[in-house]
Design brief:
The strands form 3 sheets. Strands 4, 5, 7, 8, 9, 10, 11, 12, 13 and 14 form a 10-stranded mixed β-sheet that branches. The chain has a 3-stranded antiparallel β-sheet with strand order 1-2-3. Strands 6-15-16 form a 3-stranded mixed β-sheet, with no helix packed on it. Helix 7 links the parallel strand 7 and strand 8. 36% of the residues lie in helices and 17% in strands. The mean pLDDT is 97. With 399 residues, it is of the alpha/beta class. Helix 2 runs antiparallel to helix 3. Bound molecules: (2S,3R,4R)-2,3,4,5-tetrahydroxy-N-oxo-pentanamide and cobalt (II) ion. The site of (2S,3R,4R)-2,3,4,5-tetrahydroxy-N-oxo-pentanamide has 10 residues, from loops.
């Protein structure tokens, strides 16, 4: 079997997605997601100009060898652009292999370890009443666990709170504002109110989006302990893995990290010293199913569980790959699932289902996701940036 064609499809059915389609001489095709929110064209060029020519004529069954040759052969290793490009190839080849086998991908990953995949949804509000409405809406949709994000008194636009949201917005970045002290004062009050309204049993999560120093994160973790969070996410910018030692030694609030990581090396200290509880990488940004499976096996040795990143900016192709892994691995924790617009679901028709807050990959051979190229072409790429974030005096802060 040979790869005879590979092309990159850019589309924006409400937001941008980058998809790689690989075709073989036997007519079997595979899809991979290469979406890097706000930097989509860089990955598209990396694939078109530097990767596709290397794939022509090669054997699509040699997934590991292809992965290693793209990773090692480039000489310039790692980084989000490179790893998103490699991820798209890896996932498309797994899609092809599973289609040839006539099996859904999860069967090639060891088969189902559970009946279905538990998810969490996003609730947010500028204030407590708006937040409560949003939590009720997610509960009505069936979500068994809820991520809680709120406005901060005195701030206009805060991460994760609609309508600002994290959607890439237009040709110039939206500027959000931030005050860490105000946030740290406010958040425990929010969780106190949520626990009083919704009771002790509802799993609650929160994303600090890389904005705290280790000592601030340690303090927040302690302050949130009475509210029994499922996790506190991205409490610090964890390029500095050692910073988590300080956080960990001060709080029993579970910690989740990794959506911006792209190789296992970003996790070495965090996992081997058991400084976190959940690994958050996405198939799409971590080089694909192959390396993510290895990460989960490494994490399992330290009782750390999976929690694959699943925002709107992972395409249904990347989401499907995650759901197959989630069903197969033993140390599954939870899957983030924000859902998609109807138009996105029409561009990427899929076998996976979302029922009562749980996902299942379905039984179609391969990933079980298609791409309607005509509909995709009717909704072309639109330049869009993620927001940026400034402190009250104008200083740029982590977004
Ligand atoms: O801000 O995917 O947990 N989810 C997140 C996301 C990220 C976006 C960035 O593109 O933090 O909302
Ligand atoms: Co996050």
């Amino acid at each position: 079997m040979k790869i005879v064609d590979a092309r990159v499809v850019l589309t924006s059915p409400g937001r941008n997605f980058v998809t790689l389609r690989i075709e073989t001489d036997e007519g079997v095709t595979g899809l991979g997601d290469a979406t890097l929110n706000g930097r989509e064209l860089a990955v598209a060029s990396y694939l078109r100009d530097h990767v596709v020519p290397l794939l022509m004529g090669s054997d699509p069954h040699r997934i590991e060898d292809t992965w290693q040759s793209l990773y090692r052969g480039a000489y310039w290793r790692r980084g989000p652009v490179t790893m998103a490009a490699i991820a798209a190839v890896d996932v498309a080849l797994w899609d092809i292999k599973a289609k040839v086998a006539g099996l859904p991908l999860y069967q090639l990953l060891g088969g189902a370890s559970r009946e279905r995949v538990r998810t969490y949804g996003h609730a947010s509000g500028r204030d407590i009443p708006e937040l409560f409405d949003s939590i009720r809406a997610r509960l009505a949709e069936g979500y068994p666990a809820i991520r809680v994000q709120t406005g901060v008194p005195g701030l206009k636009l805060v991460y994760g709170v609609r309508p600002a949201q994290d959607a890439a917005q237009g040709a110039r970045p939206v500027v959000e504002d931030w005050d860490t002290a105000a946030y740290l004062r406010n958040l425990p009050k929010v969780f106190d109110a949520v626990r009083q309204e919704f009771g002790p049993g509802l799993p609650l999560l929160h994303d600090a989006h890389h904005r705290l120093t280790p000592i601030q994160a340690a303090r927040l973790g302690k302050d949130l302990e009475p509210y029994d969070l499922f996790w506190l996410e991205d409490c610090t910018p964890a390029e500095n893995q050692e910073g988590l030692r300080l956080v960990r030694s001060h709080t029993t609030t579970p910690l989740a990290i990794g959506e911006v990581f792209n190789t296992v090396f970003d996790y070495q200290t965090l996992i081997s010293e058991q400084l976190i509880d959940y690994v958050r990488s996405a198939v799409t940004h971590f080089g694909g199913v192959s390396p993510l499976r290895k990460l989960f096996d490494f994490a399992a040795q330290h009782q750390i569980k999976s929690a694959v990143h699943g925002p709107e900016d992972i395409s249904p192709v990347g989401m499907a790959a995650a759901i197959h892994l989630d069903l197969a691995i033993h140390n599954f924790g939870i899957q983030e699932y924000a859902g998609y617009t109807e138009l996105t679901d029409a561009v990427f028709p899929h076998a996976y289902t979302f029922t009562d807050g749980h996902l299942h990959p379905g039984e179609a051979p391969g990933l079980g996701v298609g791409l309607d190229e005509e509909l995709a072409a009717a909704h072309p790429y639109e330049a869009a940036y993620l927001p940026i974030n400034r402190l009250q005096d104008g200083t740029i802060h982590d977004w």
